[in-house]
Write a structure and sequence with these properties.
alpha/beta, Rossmann fold, 7-stranded mixed β-sheet, 5-stranded mixed β-sheet, PDH/Transketolase, thiamine pyrophosphate, THDP-binding, Transketolase family protein
Length: about 300
Amino acid sequence: MAEKIATRAAYGDALVELGAKNDKVVVLDADLAHATMTLKFAQAYPDRFFNAGIAEANMVDMAAGLSTMGLVPFCSTFAMFGAGRAYEQVRNSIAYPKFNVKLCMSHAGVSVGEDGGSHQCIEDLALMRVIPGMTVIVPADAKEARKAVMALAEFNGPAYLRLARLASPVFEEDYPFEIGKANVLREGGDVAVFACGLMVSEALEAAKLLEADGIRASVINVHTIKPIDAECVTRYAERCGKVVTVEEHSVIGGLGDAVADVLMGKVNCTFRKIGVEDQFGQSGKAADVLREYGLTADKIAAQIKSSL
C-alpha cells in the first residue's frame, strides 16, 4: 500500500527546506500554525515567522507589505478564511498590484471532515481562478506539494496553493512538476479523466476499476488550474471524444469549468463534471464525507461508466 502523507505536512517540511536555501522567504499564519504545519518553519526560523492572530485580512495585507521589501511571503490559514474571509484583501492588496505573495491555504474541500460545512471550503478555486493574474495550483500528493512550493518560490507574482488536511497516497513514480503543465499518469483511448488534488489518486483507482469492465481511461493530473494546460486538455479531448473532470470542489467555477472553457466551441466531445454539486459539505469522517459526495474511486468509476 502506498505511503500516505497530507499535502499540508509536505508543505510544512518544504518551507523549512526552502528557508535554508532562501533567506528572503518569510511565513505568515493566522493562529493556525499547528494545523497548517507552518509551525515547523516558526521553530526553525522564528525571526522570519509572523503570527497575525485570528485576523486573516490583516495577515494578507502584512504579506503584501513584506513583498514590497523584496521578501517572498508564504501566507497560510484554512482555505475558508484565506480565500473567503480575506478575499477583498487578496484581490486588492495582492493581485491588483501584482505583488509576489504566495497564498498557501490548507484544509480545503470536504475531506476536512468533522469540521463540517462551515469549514469545508468548496469555492476557493473558483474565487481564486476568477482574480486577474492569479496562478492557481492544487498538488496531487506530498511530492508534488513540495515541488510546487519550490517552484512558487522562484515564480514572480501572486499565487494560490490549495492544500489538504487528509493524508493521501504518495505516488511511487516521481513525476516532473512545471507550473502550467499537466501530467498524464495513465493512457487510454475511451475517456479522458482530468483530475486535481486528492482526486488524482481516486481517479487512478477508478481507471483500474473501469479497465476491468473493458473501459480504457486516460488520467491527467491537472495540478495547475490557472494557467491551465490547454494543449494537453485539447489533445486528450480530441483523442478520446469523452471528457470527465473530477475535483474535491464545487462543480461550479473550478477544474471542470476551466477544462470546459478550453474545449467550448473547439472540440466536439461529451463532457461530465464530477465534484460537489450545488450544496454545502457536512460533518463526518473524511472517508465517509468523500463517499457521500461521490468522490471515492468506486463512485467515480460508476459515474464515468454511466456517462459512457
